[in-house]
Amino acid sequence: MQRLPPKDQLIMGIHAIREVLLHAPERLLRIFTEKSKHTSPGKKELLALSEAKHIPISLIPFDLLTQMTGSESHQSFAAHVKGRPLLDVAQFLEQIEGRERVTVLMLDQIFDPQNFGALLRAAECLGASAVVWSKNRGADLTPTAAKASSGASELLPLIRISNLAEAVSQFQQGGFEAVAAVLKPEAENALSFAFAPRTLLIVGSEGEGIQPLIQKRADRLLYLPMHGKIASLNVAQTTAVLLARCCGDTP
Predict the structure, then answer these.
(1) pLDDT at residue 178 in the model
(2) 165 three-state secondary structure
(3) By Cβ atoms counted within 10 A, which residue in 18, 21, 108, 202 is the most buried?
(4) What is the pLDDT of residues 80-126, one digit of tens each?
(5) 100 and 15: one domain?
(6) Is 244 helix (H, G, I), strand (E, B) or coil?
(7) Cα separations (Å) of 155 from 21, 62, 139, 151, 247?
(8) Which of 163, 144, 126 lies closest to 242, judged by CA?
(9) Residue 2 resides in a domain
(10) Contact 181, 202 (CB under 8 A)
(11) Among the three residues 46, 81, 116, which one is the final residue of a domain in this structure?
């Protein structure tokens, strides 16, 4: 029986795999797909693109795809990607030495893999230079997160560390202004806020929020004003608005 790749080296779903095929095909080692006729245009296109990029294709049963990915939402496709070394803060700061304008997204206590993936997608789409999160306090890279990210998990520089509070200090020493998104009276209006050329944007989950210690280490606190009847957006929607403003100010 063919040896299955580890889950942290798998992505799944037609759109996620397609984006990696288009923008980073060198990351792909093998495509796994169901033993059945692929009649939909999206599936046919993905197989044709895989063949054009010379990515090996393995036909396996639906149940094995589900076992591999830990989910039934794989859309009959999974892909084995190259293991990638995740950065630490010092390595990232070395990589961006000399760059004046950089936006980094920090995720605190984001436990839902769908939200985690959506945040990665927003960061990639809106121009963030990297995403940093704690391996101890939140979701991690899984096929579900990769699918929700639409392939952004394979395109973005990623920084996975143990201590977010210490990382905030490291970024500050590297010339970043740490800005935390919170609902507090002293927070500033994000829509009129002037983002620094180097910004570390910190967001937390809707339930847990950002840890108090990290809030204390932030240089500034921001809130996104609401004008409708619903009290708040979800974390991915809020972060997308903040990144659009932040990356727009710091291209």
Answers:
(1) 97
(2) helix
(3) 202
(4) 998 877 889 999 999 999 888 999 999 999 999 999 999 999 999 99
(5) no
(6) helix
(7) 11, 27, 18, 7, 17
(8) 126
(9) no
(10) yes
(11) 81
Helix H or strand E encompassing 73? none
Residue 250's pLDDT is 46
Alpha-carbon gap, residue 57 to 29, rounded angstroms: 9
**Exposed, middle or buried by CB within 10 Å (0-12, 13-18, 19+), for 81?**
buried
Residue 1 belongs to a domain:
no
Q: Is the pLDDT of residue 134 over 50?
A: yes
36, amino acid identity? S
8 Å CB contact between 217 and 168? yes
CB 123 within 8 A of CB 152: yes
User: Exposed (0-12), middle (13-18) or buried (19+): which is 36, by Cβ within 10 Å?
Assistant: exposed
Residue partners of 39: CB distance under 8 A and separation at least 6: none
**pTM, two decimal places:** 0.87
Q: At 157, is the secondary structure helix, strand, or coil?
A: coil
**Position 125, amino acid:** C
Mention every residue, 6+ apart, whose C-beta is less than 8 A from residue 89. Answer: 132, 159, 161, 167, 170, 171, 174
Any alpha helices (H) in the chain, and if so which ranges? 14-23, 41-52, 62-69, 89-95, 113-126, 143-148, 164-173, 212-217, 235-249
149, containing H or E segment: none
Report, in this order, helix, strand and coil percent for the chain, each rounded to 5.
40, 20, 40
Number of domains, the chain: 2
